[in-house]
């Protein structure tokens, strides 16, 4: 187990600044998720930790030692990358067992460990196949199995579940979570899937344009996003973000008249999550609009209202039914959280 520390880490590709002055301490035993949209620098950060990418400037420390110039094989890291990196001439069994072979583990122990690991990722029936005879999702599971077959100091995982179908993705997620609980190995996990980040992480680092914009527990990222970018990125469906103004303790926008505990201010964005709203019959409800769409998700119905260009989504009960264009009213649920942001800077106000 080991702490990983990035001190003023930068990465430039020529004139392009891919990672900017990154400072981050990944604590021993932590499951840290790097989350952000495509191109924000997640993979580059991960590849620098792995030693697969030169660091332009700054210090990378693993277990208190500066490792900028240490080759990947000397960092005691196990990696899973998007492009699998499997050996084409080896069987699934040999691929999974390779890290053990490299470390001189005897054949009988290897066979046993490979079988146990293959079971965890549901690959036991495919051990004799070559990577070319597997689907993308199966290859991804081989790469995952090869990483978890031994216990390294650090796991680095770059979108290791991205090619799996929805059901397998959820079961592998639980498997990874259990594995982390069992082994307690420091893990850095890259994803652009906020649900994966929320469910797996001890802390999430939300990245944008080569920088970390918020580093917090999943709970805090969800309940107190620091700016509009994080607010809109976390949650599904995403937070309603409504542009308006505050005067006399009231936020006003088309279809919205919501009491808020904040001083007068123009150019404000009010944020409220669909799950923090409820349908109401009250005619003086803070939000009203014409019903635009109803989407049954199984355990609930997503209710979208539109009013003069403002669109608001609420998570209502599964049984809710109404005709399109009916006038509907919404109010924050008791305890439902209202967020306020500055429209220009995007920063959180409360
Ligand atoms: P994704 O989710 O799409 O994998 P990411 O957040 O992992 O994205 P990176 O792969 O880290 O993003 O890339 C960060 C930025 O650096 C991108 O704009 C990318 O185009 C750029 N980049 C990456 N590798 C190189 C390279 N070898 N040369 C020049 N630019 C690069």
From TrEMBL:
Q: What is this protein called?
A: ABC transporter ATP-binding protein
Keyword terms: ATP-binding, Cell membrane, Membrane, Nucleotide-binding, Translocase, Transport
Annotated ranges, domain ABC transporter: 4-234
Species, as recorded: Gymnodinialimonas phycosphaerae
Q: What Gene3D superfamilies does the annotation carry?
A: 2.40.50.100, Nucleic acid-binding proteins, P-loop containing nucleotide triphosphate hydrolases
Translocase as a keyword of this entry, yes or no, is yes
Name of one Pfam family that matches = OB_MalK
Which processes are annotated in GO (biological process)?
Answer: carbohydrate transport
Entry's Gene Ontology cellular component terms: ATP-binding cassette (ABC) transporter complex, substrate-binding subunit-containing
| GO MF annotation, one | ATP hydrolysis activity
Q: Which family does it belong to?
A: Belongs to the ABC transporter superfamily.
What InterPro entries does UniProt report for this protein, alphabetically?
Answer: AAA+_ATPase, ABC_transporter-like_ATP-bd, ABC_transporter-like_CS, ABC_transpr_MalK-like, ABC_transpr_MalK/UgpC-like, Mo/tungstate-bd_C_term_dom, NA-bd_OB-fold, OB_MalK-like
